[in-house]
Amino acid sequence: MYNFDFTRPTDLSAAVDALRGDGAQALGGGQTLIPVLKQRLAAPTTLVDLSGIDSLKGIRRMGDMLVIGGGTTHGAVAASGDVAAAIPGLVQLTSKIGDPQVRNRGTIGGSLANNDPAACYPAAALALGATIETNQREIAAEDFFQGLYATCLEDGEVITAVKFPIPAASTYQKFEQPASRFSLTSVFLAKMQDGSVRVGVTGAGADGVFRHEGLEQALSSDFSASAVDGVSVSAEGMSNDLHATPEYRANLVKVMTKRAVEAVT
Q1: pLDDT (tens digit, 9 = 90+) per residue, 43-54?
Q2: I need a labelling partner for 242 at 20 to 30 A (CA). Which of 32, 191, 193, 265 fits?
Q3: Same-domain check for residues 92 and 130
């Protein structure tokens, strides 16, 4: 690591003030940033640890919305009865992130802000039509993700909460890379209250998380596993690396979507 200053504010306004400094960077659970620092791939002058801000933590239901604080850990979401009752797909998702150590440190805000192309939470945010709240504004998930490791967050902007509409049914089907436990290709499926179906895909796209409109249209008309068979999923735009070819990932999108439909019917 390079030398840096460290501060752990206990309220959001102090954290935002600290982040205005040149070279300052927010630290959520540190499950991505700390390894990056160890490899000297980043050199912030100041780390602003958000873990001491209690107002960023917590889970609550507000009518037809589930609100999760940006500093809430994956483990807390996985263990929440409120989440299990409202959006069981989120419990499935968080219970499969990394290992217990990662789940008890990593946060939803950190995951979304980092936008790793194989991270789990971005698929849920897109599929559920989530709204990301920051200290400055509200951002629709459709506008939030802007490519590999890129979001629309500005300097000094902190994710304070994520608002998820509660669907009629949800599930997360993960095909993981066994060494890292990141998604090789995974699908979050949400059947909304109006009967429409949304499919978020992570781990497969060369530009990161995406929705598949063809699968959504087919399943909105006929919510059955057989409807998936008639959809063509192109390998164009899929990632190509030592773990899987674009064609393999394209096939996995269909396989995991079919499993998702079967899981909730």
Answers
A1: 999 999 999 999
A2: 32
A3: yes
